[in-house]
Amino acid sequence: MTTPRPAPRRIVLDCDPGHDDALALLLAAGHPGVEIAAITTVGGNQTLEKVTRNALAVATVAGLDDVVVAAGCDRPLVREAVLTDPRTHGESGLDGPALPAPTVALDPRHGVDVIIDTVMGAEPGTVTLVPTGPLTNIATAARRQPDIVGRVAEVVLMGGGYSKGNVTAAAEFNIYTDPEAAHVVFSAPWRVTMIGLDLTHRALATPDVVERFRALGTTAGRFVVDLLAFFGPAYRAKQGFPAPPVHDVCAVARVIDPDLVRVRPAHVAVELRGEHTTGMTVTDFAGRAGQELDHLVATDLDVHRFWDLVLGAVGRLA
Fold it and tell me: Where is the Inosine/uridine-preferring nucleoside hydrolase domain (predicted)?
C-alpha cells in the first residue's frame, strides 16, 4: 500500500530579490512540498522597484504565470531606509544572469493587503509566512489586521543570529534594516522560527554545487549558475567567504523538510536602542528571568541533504 504524499504547505514568500531570495523562490516553485500562495516584495537588498522587477523575472524563469506577485513597503516603519550596497547584489539587485522580460503580471494590490487577504481567505493554520527580507510587510500586516496572527500556521524567517551579525558585529541585515518591524514580529503571539546567520553560514554554494547546477542542463539550472557567478566573487570580496552562503534558501528548505534544520526553543528579543547593538536578536535558550521559550531558533543544517533538496527542485523546473 502506497503512503499518500502529504499536502503541500501553502506559503507567502515575502522577499527582496537578491540572489539568495531568487534561489529560494526557485526552490519553492520546483518542490512539491510547498505551494506558493503569493509572492510579496519589500525594499531591502535594493529599492522596492528593482526587487519587484527581479521577483517578476525569477517567477518567469520558474514558470509561475498564475502566482500573485505584489509590491509592498518601500521603507522601514520608523527609520530612514538603509542605503543599498551594490557590492553584494549589484546595481540591479540581481546582477549576473540575463533577466527575462516578465510574463508574470504585477498584482495591483499592496503587498500588505495581499498577505492579509491570503491569510484571512484560507482556513486557519494553513498558510505559513516565509519572510526573507526586512520584516516591514509582515509587521504592517499584523498591526493592520491582528486576526492574521492567530490564523497563520507559522512564521519561518531568514534573519538575525544568536552569536553574530553581518552589518554590524551584533546585527544581521534584515533585522538591522527595520528593527521596529522585527520587534513587532517577534513579540506577536505566533510561532516564529528564526533561520539566522549561525545556520545559513553553513549553506555554502561551493564550486562542486555550482557544477551540479550546471549539469542540470536546464534554463533554471543555467540561471542559478549565472546568479552564483556574480554572487560568489561579490560575497568573497565583501565578506571574505570562500563560497557564498545562500541564506534565504534555508528558510524555504525548513518549511519543506523540517528535519534538515535543527532548532532549539528560545526567547528572542530585538534590541532597538543600543549604541552598538541596534538590530541584535538577543537570544535566550535558558528562559532567564522567567522568559517563555516561545520561538524556535535554527542551530544546525544537514548540508548534503539540503543541496540534494535544492537541486532536485530546480531540476524539476521546465
Answer: 11-308
pTM tops 0.90, yes or no? yes
Q: How many domains does the chain have?
A: 1
Give domain status of residue 249, yes or no: yes
Burial of residue 241 (number of CB atoms within 10 Å: 0-12, 13-18, 19+): middle
The catalytic site residues sit at 247
User: Are the C-beta atoms of residues 14 and 137 closer than 8 Å to each other?
Assistant: yes
Q: Which residue has the cell 532549539?
A: 264
Residue 35, pLDDT > 60, answer: yes
Q: From CA 270, how far away is CA 248, in angstroms rounded?
A: 20
- Whether the CB-CB separation of 166 and 239 falls below 8 Å is answered with yes
Which residues is 9 bridged to in the sheet? 34
Domain encompassing residue 275: 9-316
Rg (CA), the chain: 18
pLDDT tens across 80-138, in order? 988 777 878 989 999 999 999 999 999 999 999 999 999 999 999 999 999 999 999 99
